[in-house]
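A.,

Following up on our hallway conversation. Structure tokens first:
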């Protein structure tokens, strides 16, 4: 199938055209969505399938530290853990990325020292996104110039909720352009909606389509900084959106649930959602990520349990 957005060329020509398109999307059956997410979460994954799922989940983690108290030492330690999550078992997969603030990108890049782990950086006045456009673009340029492989931007939820959809679209487009390096290569762009602040599933569907139309490489649920972050239902809805978008355009978009995913059981539930909704094409860290910090430790403990037959406990994994 050719990859094209030609069919949607008229949709983004004006705010009214984009509004008509977004409000013309099918309404979300909230009860049905939550029931399907819950039903898929009951699937039992055991033995070799569980071992495969654990390794896959580890390989999909964006190992994250986004605290005001972050230090170069903490980022270097986190980077070392991303490359070698379990020093007692070198067969453990590396994580997909390390995610840090822009001022820590160079530190993470140096610490990774060429390892096959990406450096992701939040940008655009993360987490609130309350800044002027030049500030947001400068934030992005700084991170890319420092060596970021991926940019996790936040939309202006105030603009979106006020119905300024074209403004939201144009922000994403501008940040996408800011991800391009002088040599023509580009950092991949993840667009964070902060689903916990969007109030309705219909809004999450609309935000997903804005992000995809604007050129997002990933759509992402949350910053991890609000009360409600990634849930099976909002992630299922976003997986349906990327599946439908690919069916209509041939363009594949990734999904990243972030915030609140802490256990192996949780991670496996999300992998089932991916497989049953978007399909096997998304079961790779190129198209699906977990934004997490504590999740990795639980995955490592469960991995050790499968290997040794006994729980090793939290003392046997490093403290982030």
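Then the amino acids I'd put at each of the 320 positions:
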């Amino acid at each position: 199938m050719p990859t094209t957005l030609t069919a949607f060329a008229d949709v983004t020509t004006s705010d009214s055209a984009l509004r008509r398109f977004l409000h013309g999307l099918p309404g979300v059956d909230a009860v049905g969505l939550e029931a399907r997410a819950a039903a898929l979460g009951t699937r039992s994954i055991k033995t070799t399938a569980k071992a495969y799922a654990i390794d896959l989940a580890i390989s999909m983690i964006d190992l994250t530290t986004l605290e005001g108290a972050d230090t170069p030492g903490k980022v270097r330690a986190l980077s070392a853990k991303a490359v070698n999550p379990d020093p007692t078992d070198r067969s453990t997969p590396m994580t997909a990325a390390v995610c840090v603030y822009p001022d820590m990108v160079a530190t993470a890049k140096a610490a990774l020292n060429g390892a096959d782990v990406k450096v992701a950086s939040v940008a655009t006045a993360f987490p609130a996104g309350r800044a002027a456009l030049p500030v947001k673009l400068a934030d992005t340029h700084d991170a890319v110039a420092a060596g970021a492989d991926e940019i996790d931007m936040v939309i202006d939820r105030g603009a979106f909720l006020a119905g300024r959809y074209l403004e939201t679209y144009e922000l994403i487009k501008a940040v996408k352009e800011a991800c391009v390096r002088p040599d023509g290569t580009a950092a991949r762009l993840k667009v964070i909606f902060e689903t916990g602040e969007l109030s309705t599933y219909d809004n999450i569907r609309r935000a997903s389509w804005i992000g995809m139309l604007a050129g997002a490489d990933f759509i992402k649920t949350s910053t991890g900084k609000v009360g409600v972050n990634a849930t099976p239902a909002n992630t299922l809805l976003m997986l349906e959106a990327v599946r439908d978008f690919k069916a209509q355009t041939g363009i594949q978009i990734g999904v990243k649930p972030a915030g609140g995913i802490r256990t192996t059981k949780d991670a496996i539930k999300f992998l089932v959602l991916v497989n049953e909704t978007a399909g096997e094409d998304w079961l790779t860290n190129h198209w699906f990520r977990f934004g997490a910090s504590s999740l990795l430790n639980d995955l490592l403990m469960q991995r050790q349990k499968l290997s040794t037959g006994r729980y090793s406990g939290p003392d046997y994994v490093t403290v982030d």
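The chain has twelve helices and eight strands. Curious whether your intuition agrees with the design.

B.
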